[in-house]
Amino acid sequence: MSEQAGNNSIFTIKQILLPLLAHPKIAFILKWSVYTFLFVNFVLYIQNDLLAWRSSLPEDASLSDHVQSFATTIDVAAWLILIGIFELETYALSDEAFTAGVNRLFQIIKVLCYCSIGYAAYGYVSNSLEFYELLPLGHIQDLCGLLGQGLSVQTDITDFVSITSDTCANLAAGDTFYQVAGQTNVFAAGNVEYFRWMGWLDFSNAIIWIIVVVLIDVEVHLQSADKFGSRRLTAVRRVKSFAYMLLICACGTWFVNGLALLSWDSFLWIFGFWAIELNLAEWEQDRVKELNTEALGA
Prior knowledge:
Layout lengths: L12 H5 L6 H33 L6 H7 L1 H22 L7 H31 L3 E3 L15 E3 L5 E3 L14 E4 L4 E4 L3 H33 L6 H26 L3 H38 L1
Parallel strand pairs: 2-5
Antiparallel strand pairs: 1-4, 2-3, 4-5
Helix pairs in contact: 2-4, 2-8, 4-5, 4-8, 5-6, 6-7, 6-8, 7-8
């Protein structure tokens, strides 16, 4: 064998996951439990996007505005498809199944998913920039002054409360209020910087995930070519490990700010792609054994 297994002295996510290979049943249960939770969370995000869509857009909103309201749903759907493709590539399908047609189909699906993910990242940017185009509602003393206008108050990143006679008196009474231009949601002045910060956090998190998934794709191709000891593979694993640490920091930020669903969802996605990382580790382990056996028999 011309190339040996990668340098094990380098800390990577793979080293954390390798002990699970000695317990395949546990690894299998953990993997499919995470996949199941990811699908359940996908359904929850559809519900959240529907709520935001109904609460923040006027009747004359453009098609682009409607699509951007479902940026998270589009994003998560693309990620679910991608993780399914990687599961097939790194574990479920045999080598014989990878015909030219299958490889071409997988590449087409991946490109479509990357386009959807990129568009979702654009949606996060658009949503963040909207909080820099604010209309001050200085003519009202409290939200009861907005009754009958079909407006909602945004209390958090994913939380909206309709302004009714039952709710208006308890929603940030005595505060200064703003409205996003062209939308039907309003919010207290004290939340402006918070919403801006969380919007940019969403965007940066999306970019880091794009980097991670592209690097996984590169690693799949390098392992397919038996480049287990290459500098490129080592570099890919180092950058991926650093990116995972940034993603974990984002999880912690959401959790500290009381966004339990976002934090839980992000941790699930990290564990979901660590299942793919485990597949890659097992694939490398098995393939290196095969190459060593072939070298000894040569």
